[in-house]
Amino acid sequence: MAVYFTADTHFGDPRALRFDHRPFPDLDAHDEGLIAAWNAAVAPDDEVWHLGDFSLGPGPDRIADILSRLHGTKHLIAGNNDGPHTLAAKEWASVRAYVEIAVEGRPLVLCHYAFRTWNGIGRGALNLHGHSHGKLTPMPKQYDVGVDPMGFAPVGLSAILASRRRKVARG
Question: Which residue, among 73, 128, 140, 71, has the nearest Cα to 99 in the 3D structure?
Fold first, then answer.
């Protein structure tokens, strides 16, 4: 079992096509493209932490349909655009505002929002977040795991850490 992270999928939200300049011709193609990318990366027995803004707009049946089509055991860290239908979907293994976990021996602090400081920062804990759509300059040990900066599929911890190294190498 592998553990993956993502955020800001905005299923059913037409704003995602505009404000994030996502390369899809329409909302149906957007949603289907994200589902396909998710399932290409995640196996059915993997675990995915979605760090908020899963969907905005669709009703409970559409949200349940999308969730049922996505591989893995899915946890939601609620975002500002996750409405009551998203939060109440029975397909989530858990729904929280904040969680601290360890993956590959690394402590992680998960929230939709980026923090200025967080529990364990001095002991190597990383802050994984969404919300900023790749537009926030990160602090050390802080990573935006949203689909805009990380690509359209959930990513594992090694890919998250490598994303910073690639940016430093280019700079």
Answer: 128
Amino acid at 94: S
- Summarised one tens digit per residue, pLDDT across range 82-110 is 999 999 999 999 999 999 999 999 999 99
d(C-alpha 167, C-alpha 171), whole Å: 6
CA 143, 16, 60: angle at the middle one, nearest 5? 100
CB 7 within 8 Å of CB 147:
yes
Amino acid at 57: G
SS3 161: helix
CATH C-level class of 3-170: alpha beta
| Cβ–Cβ < 8 Å for 82, 52 | yes
